[in-house]
C-alpha cells in the first residue's frame, strides 16, 4: 500500500460522452498541499466534483484511493464523513435553512460517523462564534438562510467557516479566491492556511497565482485538457502568472 | 342541459349545407347531449354562454372573411371546399376537445371557412379580417398551416355584428416553424373563439392579443405540444369597453418533453367591466424538463369593475420549473405620488402608468400599435 | 470499516406508523348504520334538549337529499354509510367524576401518544381535552381555567352546562346545510370540544384537544366550537391519530370559530391520522369543514396546519372577514406519500373594509400521491382597502406523484389589492449534493431541505407543536426520494 493519502490512478471521466478528464494520475501525501492550475474549461472543477462524488459524471477508467479505501464506490456523504471537504466555487442557496442550523447538522453528522458524542449546544456556539470572528463573519449572518442573498464574498467566507468547523483531512478548494475583495481574500486565505498541519492535506484549484502566495503549495500541477501536463515547485505558478498557459499546450 | 338555442329556435333545419352531412349529424348529436356551456361547467365558470345567448334571435347571420395580401408567393388559400375534400380534417378539434359544446355547435353549422397554407417564409404580415354583419349567428372557421422551416406573421382582426359569432380556429405548426400571431378583437357581437394550436418538433408560436370587446367575449386557447422543444408565448391585453365582458382561457398541455410555455395577461378594467383569466399549466407524467410560467396583472380603474383569475397548475412530474404570479388592484399609489411630485396631475400620471403597462406588450413598432386607443399609442 | 455508514435499506425506512396501536377497551356502540333512530340514539345518550335533537333531525333529512361532492381531486370508492358505527364510547365514560376514574388503559394510550393528560403535567402549561372515538374523556386544568372565566370542556358537557351559548353559536359559522359532510356531522356528531373566552381575557395557557379513533369500523364526527368574546385571545391546538387498520375510517368533523370585536383565535392542527400502508390499503378518510368568522371589528383568526396523515384529506379551513380591519391567516404544510390524496386549501372571504388575509401553503408530494392546493380569495364590492397575499409552493420528490394548484381569485373592489404567487419544483441536484458533501445522507439532506421549504409555516406553530411537526415531517418523508 502506498504511503500516499490520496491516489488517483489513470482516471478518465466523461460528461455526456465528452471526455473531460483524460488519464489523470495524481498522488497527495499526508500533510501536503498541492495546487492545480489551469485555464478555464480545462476540467479543474470536474475533478473536484468527481472527488466529492457528484452525480452526472461517468468514470470510464481508473481508480481513486483515499486513505487506503476505494473512493468511487462511496456516497458523497460518506466521503465527507471520511474527511473530504469541498469548498464550492458556487455554493448553492438553501432557503429556509439557517446557516447555523446547517453547520450544526453537518458537524453532528461528522461526529456521529466518528463515534463522537453530540457536541453540547454551548460548546458549539462558542466554537462557531470563535471561528466566525477569525473570518470576520458577523453573528447575524449565522442566523440567515444558508447562502440566500449572500454576496459572492460572503458565500466564500461561509465556505471557509464550514471548513474550519468540520476540520477535514482533505480540503479541496475550488476557486475559493474568486469573488473576494482584497481584504477578504487575505483573511480567508490566511485562515485556511493556518489549518495546515502534518495530518491534513489540501488540493487548491485555482486559475490565478495570487492564492498560492498565501497558501504556499508543496507541489504545483499544470492542468490542461483534462490531464496534468507538468508538475513542479511553487516557481511553476510564477511562470504561469507571467507567461500564461500557452507553453503548456493551451491554444486559448 | 337542453338549451332553447338547440331545442327550439335552433333546430337542425338551420343546416344550410348539403356537405359533410355525416360529420354534422354526429356533431349535432354531441351538441344535443352536452349542450351549450353554462357557469356550472368549470371552464365556463365566469361566462355563462347559455344565459347570455338566451335573448338572441337564432337565424343565420352574415360574416365576411377577408384575407389581405393573399396573393403573396408561397401562400395557398382555400375555402370551405377544403373540408369537403379533406373530411378527416373537419372534426379534428374534437380529438382534443371531446366535451366542448361550442366546438360541436360550430361543426354542426359551419359554412364560412378559410384554410391558409403558408409554404414559404413571409416578409410581410398576412392580415385576416372577420367582420360580422347585423344580427344572427355565424360560424367562421379558420385553419392555418405553417409548413416546416417557415417563419410567418399573421394578424386577425375581428369587428362588427349584433349577434353571436362562434368561431373555431386551428393553427398547425410544422417542424422548426415559427409564427408571430396578432389578434385584435373589437367585435360588437357576442364573440366566442376556440383556438387550437398543434406544435411539432421545435416549433414556436408567439401571440399578442389585444382584446377590446364591445360586447361579451370569450377566447379559449388550447396549445398542444405534439413534439419536443416546442414553445408558446402568449401575451394578452384586455381593455374592454365599459360594461363589457372579456374572458380569456388558456391551457398549455405539456404532453412532450423539453417544451416551454409562457402566458402573460394585462387587464385594464373600467366601469362595469368583468374580466376573467383562467390559465392552466398541465404537465403530464413522463414529461421531462418542462418550463412554464404564468403572470397576470389587472388594474381596476373603477369601483364597478371586477377581475377573476384562476391560475392553475397540474404537475405530474418532478422535472419542472413552474411559476405563477397574479396581482389585482389599482395603480400603484407610490408611483402616482412620484409622478405627481414631478408636476404631473393625477389623470396624466395614471395615463402614463397605464401606457407603460400596455407598451410593455405592444411597443410602438408593433403591428398592433395602430389599433390601440389614442391614449396608448 | 464503514458498516456504520452503510446505506440504509428500504426495510429500515418502512415507517411503522408510530401511533398504530389499538387500545383494548370495551366500547359502547350505537347499532351499526345510519337512520333517524341512530340520530335519536346519540341525542338520547347525550341527554340532549329537544331543540338540539330537532336540529340534528333536520340536518339528517337534509343530508338524505344531498349529493356527495365530486368537484375535488380526491378519488375513493363510494362510502357505504350504513356500514359504519356512528357512536362508540369507552364504556362507563359518562360517569367520570375526576381523572382518577379514567380507565387506566385509556390513560396509557394517551401516554403513548405523549399527551400530558394528568394534572401533574401542569408545568407543561397545556390544558387538554381528549376525544377518544366519539366521546371526550377528560379535560385537564378545568379549575385553573375557571378562575379566569374560561370555559373549556367537552361539547356534551357544554350542551348541559351552557345551553344558551351552544344555542346561540352552534351552526352560526358552518350552517347545518353547508355541505354534505358538515350536514352529516350536524346529524350525528357525538362529541368534541367547546371553548369560550370571556371579554378581555387572554387565555392563560394553550388549549389542546387530541382526537383518536380507536374502535374498528367507527366514524368519528366531532364538533368543535370556539368563541372568543370581545378583546380576548386564545391559542388552540389540535392533534389527531388513529390505529392502523385495513379498512377505511371516516372522519367528518366540523370546527366553528367565532371571533368577536378585537378578539384573536389561533388554531393549530397537527393531523396524523393513519395514512394507509405503502399499497394504499386502509387509512382515514378525512372530510373536515373548518371555518372561522371574524365577526367583530379588529378581530383575527389564524389557522396553522401540518397535514401528514389520512388516506384522503379534504379540508379548507377558511375565514369570513366580516368585521372591519379584521384579518385572517392560513399557514399550511401538507405532505403526501405513497397513495395519499390531499385536496386542501382555504377560502378568504373579504366582506368588511380594510380586511387583510395571508395564505402560505407548502405542499410536498412524494411516492405516488397527489397533492392539491385549492383556494379562494374573494373581495366583495364593499370591501374597501383590503389586502390579500398568497404564496403557494409545491415540492415534488418523485416522478410519480402530482402537485396541483387551483386558486380562485375574485376581486370586485378597485381599492383592494390581491397578490398571488406560486411555484412548483423539485429539490435541485445541487442542493442535495451540497448537503451530502457536508456529510448528510440523502434522507437527512431531503429532510433538512424540506424543513427549510416549510419554515415560514413551522415558525407559526407553538413551540411544543413545532418540534413534533418537524419530527413528523421527517418520518413522513423517510424512504421517499425518487
Structural commentary:
The complex is a heterotrimer of chains A (252), B (377) and C (482). Chain A has 252 residues and is α/β, with parallel strands linked by helices. Chain A has one domain (6-248): 3-Layer(aba) Sandwich (Rossmann fold). Chain A has 9 helices and 12 strands. In chain A, helix 4 (121-135) packs across helix 6 (152-166) and helix 6 packs parallel to helix 7 (182-194). Chain B is built from 9 helices and 19 strands. Chain B has helices spanning 4-7, 21-34, 49-52, 81-85, 87-90, 93-96, 101-109, 333-341, 346-361, and strands spanning 62-67, 75-78, 113-118, 126-133, 137-138, 141-146, 151-160, 164-173, 178-185, 190-199, 204-211, 216-225, 231-238, 245-254, 260-269, 274-283, 290-300, 306-315, 320-329. The longest helix of chain B has 16 residues, at 346-361. Chain B is globular and about 65 Å long. The N and C termini of chain B lie far apart (45 Å). Residues 1-16, 92-96 and 118-126 of chain C have low confidence and may be disordered. Classes of the chains: A alpha/beta (252), B alpha/beta (377), C alpha/beta (482). Chains in contact: A-C, B-C.
Distinctive features:
heterotrimer, B: 377 residues, alpha/beta, ten-stranded mixed β-sheet, nine-stranded mixed β-sheet, 42% strand, C: 482 residues, eleven-stranded mixed β-sheet, 12 helices, globular, disordered N terminus
Amino acid at each position: 500500500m502506498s504511503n500516499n493519502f490520496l491516489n488517483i490512478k489513470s482516471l478518465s471521466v466523461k460528461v455526456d460522452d465528452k471526455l473531460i478528464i483524460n488519464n489523470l494520475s495524481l498522488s497527495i501525501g499526508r500533510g501536503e498541499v498541492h495546487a492545480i492550475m489551469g485555464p478555464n474549461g480545462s476540467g479543474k472543477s470536474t475533478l473536484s466534483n468527481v472527488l466529492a462524488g457528484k452525480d452526472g459524471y461517468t468514470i470510464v477508467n481508473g481508480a481513486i484511493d483515499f486513505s487506503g479505501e476505494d473512493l468511487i464506490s462511496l456516497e458523497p456523504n460518506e466521503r465527507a464523513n471520511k474527511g473530504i471537504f469541498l469548498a464550492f466555487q458556487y455554493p448553492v442557496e438553501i432557503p429556509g435553512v439557517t446557516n447555523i442550523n446547517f453547520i450544526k447538522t453537518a458537524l453532528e453528522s461528522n461526529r456521529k460517523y466518528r463515534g463522537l458524542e453530540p457536541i453540547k449546544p454551548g460548546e458549539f456556539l462558542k466554537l462557531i462564534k470563535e471561528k466566525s470572528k477569525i473570518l470576520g463573519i458577523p453573528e447575524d449572518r449565522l442566523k440567515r438562510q444558508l447562502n440566500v442573498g449572500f454576496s459572492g464574498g460572503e458565500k466564500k467566507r461561509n465556505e471557509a467557516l464550514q471548513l474550519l468547523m468540520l476540520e477535514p483531512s482533505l480540503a479541496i478548494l475550488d476557486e475559493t479566491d474568486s469573488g473576494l475583495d482584497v481584504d477578504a481574500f487575505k483573511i480567508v486565505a490566511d485562515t485556511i492556511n493556518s489549518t495546515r498541519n502534518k495530518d491534513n492535506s489540501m488540493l487548491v484549484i485555482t486559475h490565478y497565482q495570487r492564492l498560492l502566495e498565501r497558501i504556499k503549495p508543496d507541489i504545483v500541477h499544470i492542468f490542461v485538457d483534462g490531464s496534468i501536463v507538468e508538475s513542479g515547485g511553487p516557481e511553476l505558478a510564477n511562470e504561469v502568472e507571467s507567461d500564461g498557459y500557452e507553453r503548456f499546450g493551451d491554444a486559448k | 342541459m337542453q338549451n332553447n338555442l338547440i331545442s327550439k329556435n335552433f333546430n337542425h333545419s338551420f343546416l344550410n349545407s348539403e356537405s359533410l352531412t355525416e360529420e354534422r349529424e354526429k356533431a349535432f348529436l354531441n351538441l344535443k347531449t352536452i349542450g351549450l356551456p353554462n357557469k356550472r361547467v368549470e371552464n365556463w365558470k365566469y361566462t355563462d354562454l347559455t344565459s347570455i345567448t338566451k335573448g338572441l334571435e337564432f337565424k343565420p347571420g352574415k360574416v365576411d372573411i377577408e384575407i389581405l395580401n393573399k396573393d403573396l408567393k408561397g401562400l395557398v388559400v382555400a375555402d370551405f371546399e377544403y373540408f369537403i375534400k379533406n373530411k378527416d380534417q373537419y372534426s379534428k378539434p374534437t380529438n382534443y376537445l371531446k366535451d366542448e359544446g361550442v366546438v360541436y355547435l360550430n361543426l354542426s353549422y359551419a359554412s364560412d371557412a378559410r384554410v391558409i397554407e403558408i409554404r414559404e417564409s413571409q416578409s410581410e404580415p398576412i392580415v385576416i379580417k372577420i367582420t360580422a354583419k347585423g344580427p344572427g349567428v355565424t360560424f367562421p372557421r379558420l385553419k392555418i398551416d405553417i409548413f416546416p422551416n417557415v417563419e410567418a406573421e399573421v394578424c386577425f382582426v375581428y369587428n362588427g355584428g349584433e349577434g353571436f359569432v362562434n368561431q373555431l380556429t386551428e393553427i398547425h405548426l410544422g417542424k422548426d416553424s415559427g409564427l408571430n400571431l396578432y389578434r385584435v378583437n373589437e367585435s360588437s357581437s357576442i364573440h366566442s373563439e376556440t383556438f387550437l394550436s398543434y406544435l411539432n418538433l421545435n416549433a414556436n408560436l408567439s401571440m399578442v392579443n389585444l382584446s377590446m370587446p364591445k360586447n361579451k367575449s370569450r377566447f379559449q386557447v388550447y396549445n398542444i405540444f405534439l413534439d419536443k422543444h416546442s414553445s408558446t408565448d402568449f401575451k394578452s391585453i384586455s381593455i374592454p369597453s365599459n360594461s363589457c365582458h372579456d374572458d380569456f382561457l388558456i391551457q398549455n398541455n405539456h404532453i412532450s418533453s423539453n417544451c416551454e410555455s409562457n402566458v402573460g395577461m394585462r387587464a385594464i378594467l373600467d366601469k362595469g367591466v368583468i374580466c376573467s383569466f383562467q390559465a392552466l399549466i398541465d404537465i403530464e407524467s413522463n414529461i421531462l424538463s418542462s418550463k412554464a410560467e404564468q403572470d397576470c396583472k389587472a388594474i381596476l380603474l373603477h369601483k364597478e369593475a371586477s377581475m377573476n383569475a384562476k391560475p392553475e397548475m397540474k404537475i405530474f412530474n418532478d422535472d419542472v420549473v413552474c411559476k405563477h404570479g397574479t396581482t389585482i388592484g389599482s395603480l400603484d399609489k407610490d408611483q402616482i405620488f412620484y409622478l405627481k411630485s414631478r408636476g404631473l396631475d393625477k389623470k396624466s400620471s395614471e395615463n402614463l402608468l397605464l401606457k407603460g403597462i400596455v407598451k410593455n406588450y405592444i411597443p410602438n413598432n408593433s403591428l398592433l400599435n395602430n389599433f390601440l386607443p389614442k391614449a396608448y399609442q | 470499516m464503514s458498516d456504520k455508514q452503510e446505506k440504509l435499506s428500504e426495510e429500515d425506512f418502512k415507517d411503522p406508523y408510530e401511533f398504530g396501536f389499538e387500545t383494548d377497551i370495551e366500547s359502547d356502540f350505537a347499532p351499526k348504520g345510519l337512520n333517524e333512530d341512530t340520530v335519536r340514539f346519540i341525542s338520547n345518550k347525550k341527554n340532549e334538549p329537544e331543540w338540539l335533537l330537532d336540529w340534528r333531525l333536520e340536518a339528517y333529512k337534509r343530508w338524505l337529499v344531498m349529493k356527495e361532492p365530486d368537484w375535488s381531486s380526491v378519488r375513493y370508492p363510494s362510502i357505504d354509510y350504513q356500514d359504519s358505527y356512528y357512536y362508540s364510547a369507552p364504556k362507563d365514560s359518562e360517569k367520570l367524576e375526576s381523572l382518577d376514574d379514567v380507565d387506566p388503559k385509556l390513560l396509557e394510550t394517551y401516554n403513548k401518544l405523549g399527551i400530558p393528560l394528568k394534572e401533574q403535567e401542569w408545568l407543561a402549561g397545556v390544558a387538554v381535552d381528549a376525544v377518544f372515538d366519539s366521546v371526550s374523556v377528560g379535560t385537564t386544568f378545568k379549575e385553573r381555567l375557571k378562575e379566569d372565566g374560561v370555559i373549556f370542556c367537552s361539547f356534551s358537557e357544554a350542551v348541559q352546562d351552557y345551553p344558551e351559548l351552544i344555542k346561540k353559536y352552534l351552526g352560526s359559522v358552518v350552517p347545518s346545510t353547508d355541505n354534505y359532510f358538515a350536514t352529516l356531522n350536524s346529524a350525528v356528531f357525538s362529541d368534541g370540544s367547546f371553548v369560550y373566552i370571556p371579554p378581555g381575557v387572554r387565555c392563560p395557557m394553550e388549549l389542546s384537544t387530541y382526537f383518536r379513533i380507536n374502535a374498528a369500523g367507527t366514524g368519528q364526527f366531532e364538533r368543535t366550537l370556539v368563541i372568543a368574546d370581545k378583546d380576548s385571545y386564545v391559542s388552540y391546538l389540535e392533534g389527531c391519530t388513529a390505529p392502523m387498520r385495513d379498512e377505511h375510517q371516516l372522519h367528518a368533523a366540523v370546527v366553528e370559530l367565532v371571533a368577536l370585536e378585537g378578539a384573536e383565535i389561533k388554531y393549530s392542527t397537527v393531523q396524523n391520522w393513519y395514512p394507509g400502508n405503502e399499497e394504499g390499503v386502509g387509512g382515514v378518510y378525512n372530510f373536515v369543514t373548518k371555518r372561522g368568522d371574524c365577526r367583530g371589528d379588529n378581530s383575527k383568526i389564524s389557522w396553522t396546519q401540518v397535514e401528514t396523515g389520512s388516506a384522503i384529506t379534504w379540508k379548507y379551513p377558511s375565514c369570513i372577514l366580516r368585521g372591519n380591519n379584521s384579518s385572517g391567516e392560513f399557514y399550511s404544510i401538507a405532505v403526501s406519500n405513497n397513495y395519499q390524496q390531499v385536496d386542501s386549501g382555504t377560502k378568504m372571504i373579504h366582506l368588511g373594509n380594510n380586511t387583510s388575509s395571508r395564505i402560505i401553503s407548502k405542499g410536498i408530494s412524494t411516492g405516488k400521491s397527489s397533492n392539491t392546493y385549492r383556494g379562494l380569495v374573494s373581495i366583495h364590492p364593499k370591501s374597501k382597502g383590503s389586502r390579500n397575499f398568497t404564496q403557494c409552493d409545491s415540492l415534488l420528490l418523485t416522478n410519480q406523484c402530482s402537485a396541483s394548484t387551483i386558486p380562485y381569485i375574485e376581486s370586485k373592489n378597485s381599492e383592494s389589492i390581491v397578490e398571488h404567487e406560486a411555484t412548483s419544483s423539485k429539490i435541485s441536484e445541487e442542493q442535495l449534493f451540497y448537503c451530502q458533501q457536508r456529510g448528510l445522507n440523502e434522507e437527512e439532506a431531503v429532510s433538512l431541505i424540506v424543513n427549510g421549504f416549510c419554515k415560514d409555516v413551522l415558525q407559526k406553530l407553538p413551540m411544543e407543536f413545532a418540534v413534533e411537526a418537524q419530527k413528523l415531517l421527517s418520518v413522513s418523508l423517510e424512504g421517499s426520494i425518487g
